[in-house]
Design a protein that fits this description.
- With 195 residues, the protein is of the alpha/beta class.
- 41% of the residues lie in helices and 21% in strands.
- The protein has seven helices and nine strands.
- The longest helix is centred in the last third of the chain and has 16 residues.
Length: 195
Amino acid sequence: MDKGLLIVISGPSGVGKGTICKELLKDFNDIEVSVSATTREPREGEIDGVNYYYKTKEEFKDMIDRDNFLEYAQVHGNYYGTPKKNVLEKLELGKNILLEIDIQGALKVKDEYPHGVFIFVVPPSMEELKNRIIGRGTETEDSIETRFNNAYEEMKFINKYDYGIINDKLELAVEKIKCIITAEKCKVSRENYNI
């Protein structure tokens, strides 16, 4: 049995990673989303175990001590992490897993799992990115500034990724990522042709 494909989508806060992932899942029934853990407060409408596993800082640190994460990072004052066991078990069973994670986390996953597919989502412009962050209506003024300033630094890491996708038109960005996933599934190095 072939291993599943690990697809990692990341980019600056507010670039539209979550929206892209939701659209991808509509067309790919063979991809599962890995639910991350976080210490941030849930946003309106978010559900524990669906959007994130919401943890206290103490619970999260206990998970770190028990080596329960494929990756974790502190971003914007909160911890985020990808529970390890579930992801690795599903990949071994041939299931394709989608991770929507921050850049720090993606680079840690790449160190541990370099044959994943790493996709960096880019805003059409930094001005548009700031407008999207403000448009959420969920951030304080300080948080908006922090996220925007972090985005400038995060953009410097695009060359560490396999692919870059500009998210100026959602449908086009999603279509490009669908093409990447299809092509990656067909790579000779991933297939077992038994010839």
